Amino acid sequence: MEEIVDATIENIAVTNRANLEVFSATLQHLAETDRDIIVVTSDSRGSGKLVPFGQKFPEQIVEIGIAEQNLVGVSAGLASTGKKVFAVSPACFLTARALEQIKNDVAYSNNPVKLIGISAGVSYGALGSTHHSLHDFAVLRTINNMIIVAPADNFETEQAIRLAAETNVPVYIRFGKKQMPLLSESEKSFEFGKGRIVREGSDLTIIATGETVAPGLKAAEQLENDHNISATVVSMHTIKPLDYKLLASVATSGNPIITIEEHSVYGGLGEACASFLIQNGYHNRFKIIGIPDEYTVTGSQQEIFNHYGISGDGIAAAALGLCR
Hints:
- By secondary structure, this protein is of the alpha/beta class.
- It folds into two domains: 12-174, Rossmann fold (3-Layer(aba) Sandwich); 196-323, Rossmann fold (3-Layer(aba) Sandwich), CATH 3.40.50.
- The protein is 36% helix and 18% strand.
- It has helices at 19-31, 51-56, 68-80, 91-94, 99-108, 136-141, 154-165, 213-227, 244-252, 269-279, 301-307, 312-323; strands at 37-41, 61-63, 84-90, 114-118, 147-149, 171-174, 196-199, 204-208, 231-235, 238-240, 257-264, 286-291.
- The strands form two sheets. A seven-stranded mixed β-sheet has the order 2-1-3-4-6-5-10, with helices on both faces. A five-stranded mixed β-sheet has the order 7-9-8-11-12, sandwiched between helices.
- α8 (213-227) links the parallel β8 and β9.
- α3 (68-80) packs parallel to α5 and α8 (213-227) crosses α12.
- The longest helix has 15 residues, at 213-227.
- The chain starts with 18 loop residues before the first helix and ends with a helix.
- The model is unreliable at 1-11 (pLDDT under 50).
C-alpha cells in the first residue's frame, strides 16, 4: 500500500518531487474543506498518485476503468451539477480516444472539467510511440473554450491545481513522471495565460514549457559560463491562452528566440509563438526544438530528450548556431 502523501500546506511544494505527487497532495488539501472536489480516474489512481486521495476521501473518487470516453462523459455530467471534477488519465489516451467527448461534452457544453493528462510527452519512454502524447497541445489548441497548461515545477503545479479548482471553464493540465526542481525562488506569481520569467538575460530568449524548462535553464547556464551569452528563460506554462504580451516584449529586443517542448514540432508551443510573431511583424531569428515528424526512438525519457536535442548540451548548441 502506498504511503499517504503529507498534504499540509507548508510542505506541498517545498521539496523537489514529481509534479504528480504535488498534484495529489494539493488535491488532498483542497478536498479537506471542499466536498465538491471529485476525482474520476480510468484505472489510473496508482499511476496518478491518487491512492492516498482515495484512502482519505473514498466518497470523492470515482473509478471508471479503462474507458476514457466514459471517463470524460461521466466527468462532464458531474461538472454540470456543480462538482469540481478532476478527470485523470494517461495523456496519450485521454486526448486521443476521448477527443470527441472533450470537444462536445466538455468544451462545447461548457462543463468545467479539469482534464489531467498524466505521463505526458515521452514519459512512458520505452513503451514507444503508442504511449507518447506528442499531439495533445495541437489537437486541444483547435478546440474553443479550453485552457491548456503544462507546469514546469512543483510551484507551478500547486498553483495550477488551486487555480483550476476555482476556474469555471474547461482546463487541460499535463504532467510527466520525474522529480522536478524548483526553478525560481524569487518569482512567486502564477496566473493562467501569463508566462513566468525564471532567468533574466540580454542576448537570447529561451521559451520552454513543462519538463523542458529545466534543460532550458541548464543550457542558459552553459551559454553564460562557456560562451558569455546571456539568455532569458521563460516558463510558458500556459499554451492557450498564450502570453502574447510577454512574447511581444521579448521579441522587441530583436534577440534570437528558441522554443522547447516535449511535443511534436507541429501544432504546439513553437508554432503558436511563430504564428504570433510573423503575423505581428517581428523578424527575430527563431528555432523550434521538439520531436520531429517521425516515430520516436526507443529509450527512456532522458535518452529520447538527448537524442532530439532537448538537453542542456543540445539546446546550447542550437542557441550558438542561432546567435552566430
